[in-house]
């Protein structure tokens, strides 16, 4: 059974809107497009590259798909070659122009479509696509949540978890790692554990 990975660049206050450039997503008057650029370093690039080694399909929301489709077909580096070769899937209620070779639009039954992706592909990655990610998180239609947390606070913008996120327990799958510029890599796996509460006073007494 294949796995669904959500990959997000985020700030300390979990803003994940428009990390790549000023024109990426200015919805809501977001003034910080491109906030990631001053903080990127070679180690972060290595992390991202390592995460791509097993990727064999892309699943994108409409806005991110349009950005990728305008850029990656013209790139011949390692990531560009990979993205242009593998199947791409776009989730949209509209009728996007599927001009990027190898692209398929998902149907309206998202749970069924994701189940089919799991059957077809070992490692499907959702990159960016923050609006679409909210649905995947809410419906628990993912296996891994991969965050690259950058040492910056923006105070405004779309966040990884918007209002309406459902309680879920995650497990850290490997030790957190830090890049020279202070970016922290966190890789979580969704678990079946219930979210529970307790009394810290009792924990302290037991200790």
From TrEMBL:
Domain (Bacterial bifunctional deaminase-reductase C-terminal) ranges: 6-174
Gene3D superfamilies found in the cross-reference section: Dihydrofolate Reductase, subunit A
Pfam families registered for this protein in UniProt: RibD_C (PF01872)
Superkingdom as given in the UniProt entry: Bacteria
InterPro entries found in the cross-reference section: DHFR-like_dom_sf, RibDG_C
The protein's name: Dihydrofolate reductase family protein
């Amino acid at each position: 059974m294949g796995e669904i990975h959500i990959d997000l660049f985020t700030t300390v206050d979990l803003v994940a809107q428009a990390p790549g450039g000023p024109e990426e997503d200015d919805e809501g008057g977001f003034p910080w497009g491109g906030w990631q650029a001053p903080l990127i370093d070679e180690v972060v690039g290595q992390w991202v590259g390592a995460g791509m080694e097993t990727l064999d399909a892309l699943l994108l929301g409409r806005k991110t798909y349009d950005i990728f489709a305008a850029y990656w077909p013209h790139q011949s580096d390692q990531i560009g070659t990979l993205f242009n070769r593998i199947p791409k899937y776009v989730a949209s209620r509209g009728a996007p122009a599927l001009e990027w070779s190898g692209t398929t639009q998902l149907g309206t039954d998202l749970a069924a479509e994701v189940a089919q992706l799991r059957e077809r592909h070992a490692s499907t990655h959702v990159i960016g696509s923050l609006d679409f990610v909210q649905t995947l998180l809410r419906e628990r239609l993912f296996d891994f949540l991969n965050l690259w947390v950058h040492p910056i606070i923006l105070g405004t913008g779309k966040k990884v978890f918007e209002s309406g996120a459902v309680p879920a327990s995650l497990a850290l799958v490997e030790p957190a790692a830090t890049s020279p510029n202070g970016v922290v890599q966190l890789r979580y796996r969704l678990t079946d554990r219930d979210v529970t509460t307790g009394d810290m006073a009792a924990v302290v007494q037991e200790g």
